[in-house]
Structures are given as C-alpha cells and as structure tokens.
Design a protein that fits this description.
This protein is about 30% helix and about 30% strand. With about 180 residues, the protein is α+β, with helices and mostly antiparallel strands. Helix 1 runs antiparallel to helix 2.
Amino acid sequence: MTTGSRLFAGLVAVLVFGTLAVAALAEPETARFTGTVPADGASLAAPPAEFEVVFDGRVRARAFHLVVSSAGGEQVPTEEPWVDGSRLVLPIAGLAAGQYTAAYHVLFGDGQQVAGSARFTVAGGAGAPVAGGAPDAHGGHGADDPLSLGLLLVDLVLALVLVGALVLRRWRGRA
C-alpha cells in the first residue's frame, strides 16, 4: 500500500467516524409526553379554545397529526395545528355541549412515536352540535432537521470522493 493510499484510507476513516460522532452528539433527547389539555376524562363548563398535547421539553416532531371528533364520530372542523415550544396546539372553536375525543400521533426525528387519545365532556356549548359532512382535516408536518440534511450532504460528498478515487485508480492502472 502506497503512502497516498494510506493517507486516503485514513482520511476516509476520519470522515466516517467524525460524521458518526457528530450525529451521536448532536441528536437531542426526545421529549416525553406529559399529558393533554383538556386532560383525559375532563368535564368542562365551557368549550376549550384549543386542544394541546404537552411534553416535558421542546418538541422536535418530524410529523404530527391532531384531530377532534364528536361522540358520533364526526370530525370537528379545526384550524391548522402548530408547535409551540413543548406543546402541540390544535385550535378548536364552537364546540356544542357533548362528549369529544381528541386523537394525536407524533413522529419524532429519531423515529420514536407517541400516539393516544383523550376524551372530554363539554357541559355548556358554544353553538349547535357538530354536524357530519366533509370536515376540515388538518395535520402538521415538519421537515427534516438541518443536521440530518447536513449529514446527508457529507455522505454524498464522501461517496463521490470514493467513486472518483476508484476511477482514478483504474485509470492510473491502465496508463
């Protein structure tokens, strides 16, 4: 093995292990689910303005879906959900008196998932009961985090360097 080949192999090893180390150190811990607002089983005097899924730290969700349904199974029309620090928030308005189920599914960047539901009752409603029909279905979807995209770029560059080295080696062997 020539000095150039050893140097190249060392450089590849440093790049591979460096990339793995950065990925391991930079991946934040996934926030843990702590509850919902309204809480499961809650009985409310007035309808809530929003449904929240609460975590013990900053939410770094790759994708999430929140939906509220009436006791009859009809989906309640809502606005677009969003992430607010340690909470996923789904605005809901105009709930009538009745029982509701809020369901949630969260996919974190590291592949972990949290899913569940919370049932709550509204004693005093804001309007007519929720009718069936074509409800607005919303789900928030986040993009991949910048670290993953950066690591993907590093992998691409590394693959191109390796292919280039193999082509150059074969070309030198023929000359």
